[in-house]
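Sequence, please.
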C-alpha cells in the first residue's frame, strides 16, 4: 500500500460513536462519517472510499441492508460490519448479500480496527490493480483480434496480385526456363498463403473464446472440400465422405474447420507413393455428441512419435512438408471444445484420427 491516507467511511446512528471513531483514527486515516445509511449512500456517490464500515443496528436500514445497497451503487469499497450481538442469520445475510469482508464486535478495539482497515485497504489496492490489468488485457485482446485479421488481409492482397501477375506472365512466354521461374513463384505464393491461413487458424484455436452456433456438418464439409480441391491436386486420391447427422449440434464452427482442415491436410500430405491413395472422412452426430473420423492409407506414424505429434513444432517424419503446428492446433481446438482425440497409426499402413466433441449447447443446459 502506498503512503497515502486511506479514505474510510463510518456509518453509525450514535453521534458519540462517530466522534470517538474519528478522533481515534484521524491521524492514520482520512475519516468520513454519516449518521444513517441514506447519508452514507450519498457520500459513496461523491467520494471514492477504500473502506466502508457500518454498524449493524441502525434505524430505518440495517448495516447488512446498507451494504446490499452499496454493492449496487459502488461495489469497490471493502466492507466491514460492526455488530454488538451474535446473530448467525445476520452474519449469513452480510456475507451473501452485503459481501462483507470482516466482522468486528462492539465495543471495538482500536488496534484491531486499525489493522482491519489497513488489511482491507490492501485488498482494495490489489483488486484495483487487478482490474486495471484485466482491462488492459481485454484491450490488448481486442486490438490483437483486429491486428491479426488486418495483417492477414494486408498480406493476402499483394500475394494474390503476385499470383495473378505470374499466371498472366506465363501466358506470354514459351521459354521453359522462364516458365520454370514463374512456377517457383507460384509455389512460393501458395506456401505463403497456406502459412497465413495457418496463422489465422492458430489464433482461432488458441486465443479466441468459443462462439457456440448450430453446426451443419454437410454444409461445412462441402465448403471445405471445395477449398481442398482448389488447393491440392486431389485427382489421384480416392476420397470417401460419410456424414450421418439427423439431429442438431452446437459448437464453434471456426474451430471445427481448424480440426477438419489440419486432419485432412495431414492425410493428404503424408500419403505413400506408388499406391492407390485413400482418405475417408466419417462424421456421426447423435446422443449429444459428434464423432469425426479421418483415416488414410499413408506413411503412418511410428509408435515413438505418437505421444508427441500434438506438441508444438513437433514433426514425426523427415518430410519437409509441414510447419509442425497443425496437430497442435487440432489438440488446442478440441480441448477448447471440451472434446477428446484418439490416434491409431502403423508405419506404412496409415493413420486414423477419432475426434469426439460434445454438443456445447446441450452441455451448457446441464
Amino acid at each position: 500500500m502506498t503512503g497515502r491516507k486511506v479514505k474510510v467511511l463510518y456509518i453509525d446512528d450514535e453521534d458519540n460513536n462517530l466522534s470517538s471513531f474519528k478522533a481515534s483514527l484521524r491521524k492514520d486515516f482520512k475519516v468520513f462519517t454519516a449518521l444513517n445509511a441514506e447519508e452514507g449512500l450519498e457520500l459513496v456517490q461523491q467520494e471514492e472510499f477504500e473502506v466502508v464500515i457500518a454498524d449493524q443496528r441502525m434505524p430505518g436500514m440495517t448495516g447488512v441492508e446498507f451494504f446490499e445497497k452499496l454493492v449496487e451503487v459502488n461495489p469497490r469499497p471493502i466492507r466491514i460490519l460492526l455488530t454488538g450481538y451474535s446473530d448467525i442469520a445476520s452474519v449469513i445475510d452480510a456475507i451473501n448479500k452485503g459481501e462483507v469482508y470482516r466482522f468486528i464486535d462492539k465495543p471495538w478495539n482500536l488496534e484491531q480496527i486499525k489493522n482491519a482497515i489497513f488489511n482491507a485497504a490492501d485488498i482494495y489496492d490489489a483488486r484495483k490493480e487487478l482490474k486495471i490489468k484485466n482491462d488492459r488485457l481485454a484491450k490488448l485482446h481486442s486490438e490483437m483480434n483486429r491486428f491479426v485479421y488486418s495483417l492477414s488481409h494486408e498480406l493476402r492482397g499483394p500475394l494474390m496480385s503476385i499470383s495473378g501477375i505470374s499466371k498472366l506472365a506465363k501466358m506470354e512466354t514459351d521459354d521453359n526456363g522462364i516458365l520454370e521461374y514463374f512456377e517457383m513463384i507460384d509455389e512460393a505464393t501458395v506456401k505463403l498463403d497456406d502459412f497465413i491461413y495457418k496463422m489465422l487458424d492458430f489464433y482461432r484455436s488458441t486465443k479466441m473464446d468459443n462462439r457456440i452456433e448450430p453446426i451443419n456438418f454437410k454444409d461445412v464439409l462441402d465448403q471445405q472440400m471445395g477449398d481442398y480441391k482448389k488447393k491440392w491436386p486431389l485427382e489421384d486420391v480416392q476420397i470417401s465422405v460419410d456424414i450421418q447427422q439427423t439431429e442438431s449440434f452446437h459448437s464453434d464452427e471456426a474451430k471445427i474447420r481448424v480440426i477438419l482442415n489440419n486432419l485432412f491436410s495431414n492425410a493428404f500430405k503424408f500419403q505413400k507413393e506408388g499406391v492407390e491413395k485413400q482418405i475417408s472422412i466419417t462424421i456421426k452426430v447423435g446422443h449429444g455428441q459428434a464423432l469425426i473420423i479421418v483415416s488414410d492409407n499413408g506413411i503412418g506414424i511410428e509408435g515413438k512419435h505418437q505421444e508427441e505429434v500434438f506438441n508444438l513444432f513437433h514433426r514425426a517424419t523427415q518430410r519437409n512438408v509441414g510447419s509442425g503446428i497443425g496437430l497442435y492446433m487440432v489438440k488446442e481446438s478440441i480441448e477448447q471444445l471440451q472434446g477428446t482425440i484418439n490416434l491409431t497409426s502403423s508405419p506404412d499402413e496409415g493413420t486414423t484420427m477419432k475426434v469426439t466433441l460434445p454438443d456445447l449447447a446441450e452441455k451448457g443446459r446441464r
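Residues 6-108 form a domain with the Rossmann fold fold (CATH 3.40.50.2300).
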